[in-house]
């Protein structure tokens, strides 16, 4: 578990669900952690979470003196985007008969086409900071607990979002289902 003390945007919402916003990269990119109360499943929070609910929660965050305990975690996923690209109109690119990709290889071959396209994303948080693509942020370590501070302890399943604050856009979203496993 990593440990950090400081003033962060925080709120206890919806019957005890904790929402915490931490700086991620510069002033514009933040990491939002959504931690259900112990009696509430992460699946239930995910089911209830809509764009409107999330906006309401984020708008209600206030700067609070906090003690944050957070596990190391890595979220990684990859998937085919071929169907999405075809739905956007990129049909010929994937057709062996219609694709036109000249100039990619020497010799003037014109029989190239894209057979599939994949997207891969990852987020890793550890003592050295956070990494998502090429973004990093430092984590401050402390030595003792202050009893007057609110505690945010992510020792049970939680959601993590990377958010561009100025545009209020979620650029990454994932879940840490078992924070006790390295």
TrEMBL record:
Name listed for the protein in its UniProt record: Serpin family C member 1
Family per record: Belongs to the serpin family.
Database matches in Gene3D superfamilies: Alpha-1-antitrypsin, domain 1, Antithrombin, subunit I, domain 2
GO terms for MF: serine-type endopeptidase inhibitor activity
A cellular-component GO term for this protein: extracellular space
Organism of origin: Molossus molossus (Pallas' mastiff bat)
Domain Serpin: 1-179
SMART domains named among the record's database cross-references: SERPIN
């Amino acid at each position: 578990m990593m440990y950090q003390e400081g003033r962060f945007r925080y709120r206890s919402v919806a019957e005890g669900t904790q929402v915490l916003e931490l700086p991620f990269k510069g002033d514009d990119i933040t990491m939002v952690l959504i931690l259900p109360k112990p009696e509430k499943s992460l699946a239930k929070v995910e089911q209830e979470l809509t764009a409107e609910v999330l906006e309401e929660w984020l708008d209600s965050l206030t700067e609070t003196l906090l003690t944050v305990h957070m596990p190391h975690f890595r979220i990684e996923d990859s998937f085919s985007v071929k169907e999405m690209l075809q739905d956007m109109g990129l049909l010929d690119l994937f057709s062996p008969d219609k694709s036109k990709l000249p100039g990619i290889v020497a010799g003037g071959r014109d029989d190239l086409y894209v057979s599939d396209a994949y997207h891969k994303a990852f987020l890793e948080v550890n003592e050295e900071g956070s990494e998502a693509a090429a973004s990093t942020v430092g984590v401050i370590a402390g030595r003792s607990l202050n009893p007057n501070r609110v505690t945010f302890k992510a020792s049970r399943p939680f959601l993590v979002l990377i958010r561009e604050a100025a545009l209020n856009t979620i650029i990454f979203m994932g879940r840490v289902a078992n924070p006790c496993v390295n």
